[in-house]
Amino acid sequence: MREFMAITKALSDPGRVRILLALKQGELCVCQITELFGLATSTVSKHLSILSQAGLVLSRKSERWVYYRLPEKSAPVAVREALDWVQKSLAHAGQADADAARLKKILKMDLADICRRRC
């Protein structure tokens, strides 16, 4: 029951769902996520913390920066099913398409420049 509640809490916020959809493109630095959504780093970090506690994202630290990605196929069934449901339900929603287009531009930007500006 605890796992279910953590997942449903994580999915109850549109910002966190948008982060999950963005991570479908691959691993992103916190700076790239803040750039994408125009939110404060502290807000994005809180969202990522909740997603991480639910097992919906994994992180790795490299020097000063933290990178997030979706879990692999070995994730618990509930996590895989929740992520599949989000992807299938919202993959082509208007906001998701707009975020994907903006993310394409951000991925072409120099990561160090983004991180210096945002973090």
Tell me about this structure.
The protein starts with a helix and ends with a helix. It has one domain (2-118): Winged helix-like DNA-binding domain superfamily/Winged helix DNA-binding domain (Arc Repressor Mutant, subunit A, Orthogonal Bundle), CATH 1.10.10. It has 119 residues and is mostly helical. The longest helix is centred in the C-terminal third of the chain and has 15 residues, at 94-108. A hairpin with a 2-residue loop joins strand 2 and strand 3. A three-stranded antiparallel β-sheet has the order 1-3-2. The chain contains seven helices and three strands.
Describe the structure in brief.
The chain has 119 residues and is mainly alpha-helical. The chain has helices at 2-10, 14-23, 30-37, 41-53, 77-90, 94-108, 111-118; strands spanning 28-29, 58-62, 65-69.
Mean pLDDT: 91
Helical/strand content category: mainly alpha
- The amount of helix comes to 55-70%
β-strand number: 3
Tell me the CATH superfamily: Winged helix-like DNA-binding domain superfamily/Winged helix DNA-binding domain
Question: Can you tag this structure with a few keywords?
Answer:
119 residues, mainly alpha, Arc Repressor Mutant, subunit A, 7 helices, 65% helix
Topology (elements, then pairings):
Layout: H1 2-10, H2 14-23, E1 28-29, H3 30-37, H4 41-53, E2 58-62, E3 65-69, H5 77-90, H6 94-108, H7 111-118
Antiparallel strand pairs: 1-3, 2-3
Helix pairs in contact: 1-4, 3-6, 3-7
